[in-house]
Amino acid sequence: MFGYYFKLGLRNLRRNPALTALMVLTLAIGVAASVSTLTILHVMSGNPMPHKSERMISVVFNNGPLEGYSPGDKPNDDQVSYTDAMNLQASGQGARRTAMMGLGGTIQPDRKDIAPFVVTGGGPYRDFFAMFEIPFLHGQAWSEADDKAGADVMVLTRALSEKLYGNDNPVGRRLRYNGFDFLITGVIDNWDPIPRFHRIVGMGAFDEEDEFFLPMATAVRHEWNNSGSTNCTSSAGAGYQAFIRSECTWIQFWFELHSAADRAALQDWIDGYAAEQRKLGRMPRNAPNHLYNLTEWLEHLKVVGNDNKLSAWLAFGFLLLCLVNTVGLLLAKFSVRAPEVGVRRALGASRKEIFHQFLVETAVIGLAGGVLGLLLALGALGLISLQSKELALVARMDWAMLCVTFAMAVAAAILAGLLPTWRACQVTPALQLKSQ
Predict the structure, then answer these.
(1) From 189's CA, which of 21, 177, 245, 408 has a CA 20 to 30 Å away?
(2) Of the candidates 293, 107, 117, which has an alpha carbon nearest to the alpha carbon of residue 214?
């Protein structure tokens, strides 16, 4: 019977085209508004590495001075100092570990048809590539010896490699960056995590991706400044060496644990490390040391702010308003069909069968509203993505949201049709037949 009711529903869409079009449009607009907002919220709040997010741990110390500090105050920054980063890097804790700074400079291509241009990238340790499961198109990461020596080696992204070398494999060639020749050891394939969890503080959760990577030790050897957030609670002193010995925080640090159960042991080690540093005259605040797994890190940095959540609630409020209007339109549509219901009831149709028929018809309206709502949502997301590069990253629909769109439209139509359908089932056959 479902197939029959479905065909009947399609046929009934043409019985009152103006009213049907108004219902479909009302439903589609509500669905499009809510789905567009929900899609952006879904992308922004996504987990970039769900299979290992519990094992990815970021560390934050409270290494500010005692002056102006009250117990319970938050750390002055969500990064660590160079001293702490190097100690953590040498600690041997976890399965892998990496410090990371931001870099920015100028590339001078060999090709005469390309003028020098500015690029941005990251300065991690080689564990970074395995920790974050970054795929390679050509070559590989630099060696551990390169990390220790601060060698002039570099890994390019696929986009930068194609810009400079086309489809050729550039591994083994040298590229001039900031006045120095760097050996290209690898080219990573497409890697575009959203949010940019690995270096949010330095580059933003939805900023453009890094274009290259080179060893952090190399950047320090060349005395290059961090490109990103740098927080100094007191004077760092004159010169680069004074800066890296200071308590300025400018480095993001990540551990990868063997298992989530190792977190307690890492916390004990971190607390013990901080206690030793206090004996050396550092970390005078004696504040708690924080570990965040990946999902906690995103929540801590408020990647999805309250204004984004409020926008989603407002969008669903608008959908509810559209549903109320749809209920009124369905009541009007079904009320004029009371004689038809009376005849069917007189011929032996039960209230249950009438209910199923009209509910399937509302589902057909919901399906039509879903198709139109999807088109409107895609158009809205396209317009949103034109506003900025950051919005272009999050204003995109995946298969999950595509299914949600249709499910939401059909469910909304069925929900809106419950009252009109119930009213239609209450028709008294005798009264309708007497009036004919």
Answers:
(1) 177
(2) 107
Query: Would you say the pTM of this structure is higher than 0.90?
Result: no
Q: Tell me: do 260 and 316 sit in the same domain.
A: no
Q: State the average pLDDT over residues 102-116.
A: 92
- In angstroms, rounded to a whole number, what is the distance separating the alpha carbons of residues 372 and 380? 12
Q: Of 58, 66, 91, nearest to 282 (Cα)?
A: 66
Reply yes or no on whether the pLDDT at 432 is more than 70: no
Domain that residue 393 falls in = 2-45+305-435
> Which of 138-142, 248-252, 370-374 ranks highest by mean pLDDT?
138-142
Query: What's the average model confidence in pLDDT over 54-62?
Result: 93
* Same domain, yes or no: 313 and 283: no
Indicate the residue among 300, 316, 336 that finishes a domain: 300
Peptide bond into 195 cis (omega under 30): yes
pLDDT at 365 over 80: no
Structurally, the chain folds into a number of domains equal to 2
